[in-house]
Amino acid sequence: MTILVTGARGNLGSRLVATLAAAGCPVRGSARDATTLRLPAGAEPAELDITDPGPAAADTLRGVEAVFLYPVIGSVDAFLAAAATAGVRYLVLLSSPAAYEAGEFDRPIGLVHRAVERAVAGAGLEHTVLYPSWLATNAQRDWADQIRTTGRVAMAYGDATVTPIHPDDVAQVAADLLTRGTHRARMQILTGPRSLHLRDVVTTVGDVLGVEIPVDDLTRDQALEQAKGRMPRPILETLLDVAAASIGQAAPVNNTVERITGHPARPFRSWVETHRADFERN
In the chain, where does the domain assigned CATH 3.40.50.720 lie? Predict the structure, then answer.
């Protein structure tokens, strides 16, 4: 059984390819430009644009029984039709709680994910939708540059709550679903083990580095100005509104990771310990 992992260059796709290859599963990792892929031994590279698959998709899908689908902006209908024609039996779709959460499901991030979910549901393939909580790697994306260069973090809504999840846990859940039928529900909501305030997430990074990392509180307008050019304004506005709405509420926590993988969800600190070099001062 060959498994196709789309988005194999990405944070989660690359980990999933490595997890499957380490377990001895035949795995094919795809990207729009296959020359950019850095796959582990035993994994096969493939070139594929899932929004414009073309005739070459038949080769990429040859012998594939299960697919991990990374969400994209644009239609995936042609790819899903090619997958069904090729005999794909099962698909895991990576989505986001933004697809159903209040304040997000009808705004840009939620709408993108809901569109892909509708396409998958309409394709007639057996599938499971994964909804991972706040990825631990968001800390690197959002704050690593600030911490390395200034030793501080400036943010709005530092008392907002999240449940950081280790990306390896997401990859292991996806690998289980792709290789075993036990937990193939319509959807699986995944969280880390503990609800944290954003400022406490920063504190954890500092604890691992052995330094104090002060948090400078920004107003909403200051945060919008600081992030200008880094992401579309409607996306940032949605993220800020969601953060503001979470203040005073614990972020959801569940045991899905342990139920599927057999081990408790890894704490955020364990991810920081592995990636501390990303935050160390220049």
Answer: 2-132
